[in-house]
Write a structure and sequence with these properties.
The protein is built from five helices and eight strands; from the N terminus they run βαβααββαβαβββ. The protein is an alpha/beta fold.
Length: about 180
Amino acid sequence: MRDVHASLFQSVDGVVESPNLWQFDNFDPEMGAMMTEAIAPIDDVLLGRVSYEEWSGYWPTAAADDPFGSFINPVRKHVASRSLTGALAWQNSTIIVGELETFVDDLKRQEGGRIAVQGSISVVRQLLFAGLLDRLTLMIHPVVAGAGKHLFEPGDPVTRLELVDSVRTSSGNVLSTYAKHG
């Protein structure tokens, strides 16, 4: 069975939304190397509508030598959306038909490499609480963002995770990876 991984940039105060507004000055070479290593085994990417719309307007025109651009453009992208319809313009992108959880459960049973959620806070939350997310990496930057969406919200169900790795980079970022408990 294939694993589903998610990685999110996070501020010390728990903000995961719009990291481009606060993480840029702490993105160090070690973090870049770890991210490059993490994307290598990925065959399928899951995106929510918001991330798809933001990224499809940027990444297709990214510099050819951009490591993330050269990964994200050709990889298979599955978009969870109730409002997008028809064919999607960004290469190798399709809309998930039916329920996200059923789709991901089926995708996990197919042959292939890792499945990753990129961005897409709501998709990460849904898969985590459904027990379909195998690994969650929080890349915590030493900054207080002050405002924005948090990954976890009051009233979320108790969900046990197991810390499987934690690394501190030279810029003070802490990358903590958690697995499903048990």
